[in-house]
Structures are given as C-alpha cells and as structure tokens.
Amino acid sequence: MTIKNTAERWGAVSQLLHWAIVLLIAAIAVIGLTMTDMANGPQKIKIYALHKSLGLTLLTLVVLRLLWRLYAGAPKAVAGTPHWQERVASLTHWALYLLMFAMPITGWLFNSSSGYPLQYFGLFNLPKIAATNPGLAELSESLHENGFWLLLALVLAHAGAAFYHHLFQNDDTLRRMLPGYRRAAPAAAAEPAPAVVAPAPAPENPDAP
C-alpha cells in the first residue's frame, strides 16, 4: 500500500484519517446523546469535558485530512459510475467536510458565549472565540444540535451508498478505502490453440506400376 493516494485507491494516510474520524464521530455522538440526561455533578462535568476534547480532536483531524487531500489528490471515480452519481458523491463529500468543521466550531462558540472554560483533556486552556452572550449561546446551541442530525443523516447516506456499491454493484468503491486490499488482476485472455497443419501428401513414385 502506498502512502499517497493513487488513481485507483486511497493511500495509507487517507485511510488512517478516514477511519479515525469515523470512530471519533461515533464516540462523540454516543456521548452527546447520553450526557444531557445525566444528573448534575462531577461525573457529568467530566463527560462534557470529554465530549469537548473529542470535538476539538475531530476538528484537528478534519483539517489534516483536508490538507492531505489537497496535497495527495483523490482517486478517480470507479469505472462505470454514472456521471450523476459522481456529482452526488462529490457534493456529499464536501458537505461532510463542511459539517465536520461546523460541529466543533459551533460547539466552541456555544461554550464561549455561555461563559464556560474550555480545556483540552485537562492539558491546557483554549481561548474564547466569543464574549459571553446569551442570544449567541442559544443560536450556536441550536446550530450545533441541528447540525448533528444533518451530519448523522449524511454519514448514514454515505455509508449506505458505499455498501450498496459493495454488495450490489460489486465494484471497488468501499474496497479501495480498506487496508490491505489488492485489486484482482483481470483474467488473461486464453491463448488461441495452435493451428493443426495437415501433413503434405507424399510425392507420387513415378516408378510405381
């Protein structure tokens, strides 16, 4: 497997970033959906802090992935893919990038405008990106929550399309994002059988009776 992307498949760096982001989104979603129902106390504060730190990690990985894609390029569309599917896939990818940026930023904005401190895994504090403002806090919270459901819908649609191509189209859309995959070489054309040459007739014997 190559480090950079090729025309046929995603490289090792793109694969690592892709699956790390998938796992992060899953973890952030589970924590975000359960932490609001927790009773107030130290444990809830810790879970909220973890949610924020994971969100900042997601933002960092998305920035790295976008920069790497701009540097390493992207594979060509799988052979035989209709043009409209290429367009939909491209729009979906860029919408996912936009939302993966928007989710941590709106969360950071909500945290800042609500007057809460922001630490990264307890290691250091991050600056506020807005002054305390109840109206802005309400707006950013709404954008954060609605953006999550939109991101979830796009992620499920993206995954569903990949599995559809894998199971029903039997193409390399999903396989080329999997580590260790080697595309099967096309079967060699059968060599034609050598022509059977009939033996030349024996020359007539002029001395024969």
Protein described:
This is Cytochrome b. The protein has a single domain, classed as Fumarate Reductase Cytochrome B subunit (Up-down Bundle). Helices cover 58% and strands 2% of the residues. It has four helices and two strands, in the order H-H-H-E-E-H. Strands 1-2 form a two-stranded antiparallel sheet. A hairpin with a 3-residue loop joins strand 1 and strand 2. About 5% of the residues have low confidence.
Produce the secondary structure layout.
Layout: H1 12-35, H2 42-72, H3 83-113, E1 119-120, E2 124-125, H4 134-169
Antiparallel strand pairs: 1-2
Helix pairs in contact: 1-2, 2-3, 3-4
Strand content: under 5%
Uncertain regions: pLDDT < 50 for 5+ in a row? 184-193
**Whole-number count of domains:** 1
| CATH architecture heading | Up-down Bundle
The 3D shape can be described as elongated
Q: CA-to-CA gap between the ends?
A: 79 Å
Overall structural class, as computed from helix and strand content, comes to mainly alpha
| CATH uppermost class | Mainly Alpha
Please compute the radius of gyration using only Cα atoms: 29 Å
